[in-house]
Amino acid sequence: MVSTRNHPDNFPPPSPSKVLARSSPSPKKAWAHTPSNFTLTWLAVSLPLVAWDTGYVLLRPYSMTGGSLHSPIFEPYALYATVDYVYGVPAYNAANGFTSAQGTMNLVESIFYGYYLWIVYAYSRSSNEEGRGAPKPGIAGWLGEAKVVENGMGGLATLIGFTAAVMTVSKTVLYWLKEYYSGFDNIGHNDISSLILLWIIPNGAWLVFPSYMIYVFGQEILQGLAIASGSLSTESNATVEKDD
After folding, report:
1. pLDDT bracket for residue 135 (50, 70, 90)
2. Is the peptide bond prior to 61 cis by the omega test (within 30 degrees of 0)?
3. Which of 99, 140, 177, 212 could potentially form a cystine with 135 if both were Cys, beta carbons 3.0 to 4.6 Å apart?
4. What does residue 90 show for φ and ψ, rounded to 5 degrees?
């Protein structure tokens, strides 16, 4: 007869660590809002300028030349009002409502941006990694580094910042289109050098930088939706964050 080896009636159960290792999927990398210091610096510079502009517009005629509030805060607008008649006497005397309307929208946008900045500085942690969409820290230094806002507050900050940037670009494009379709009624009297230096470059900044914010924040929103739907793996999520 052929002998067989004896086995215990029951095999020992596998260790819990091995079960977990086989059954638990690898955790996904958490999504976070990562604004660069480049973006935050733009907002820190632009918001006081927008507040100044809004003050001039909504305080007319007191903020205009000869008004009780004109000097010293609004003195530079004595020149700008001769470049862009929307800010000058012709528009005010004609009761042109566009000037005050866009000033009111500036106020709304500023509230949105202010709330965004409050969330970032109240709920963020600093990181020396590259901010999303920013120049590499090795090139831009501190401007390329990031803040990191995680969880729900990161999502709220991204949504508010994206909304405000869309408002800014839309209003600025409308401002330019208004001039085009009116035959450049308010700026057509300027020579080309004055127009470029005093109108196109200053107003163009509010097209370029908010458009950059729309692109970067839009990428974050799409990435968050992809992670939530399960269509973005941990590996691809890490790759996207590294490449942005």
Report:
1. low
2. yes
3. 140
4. -55, -45
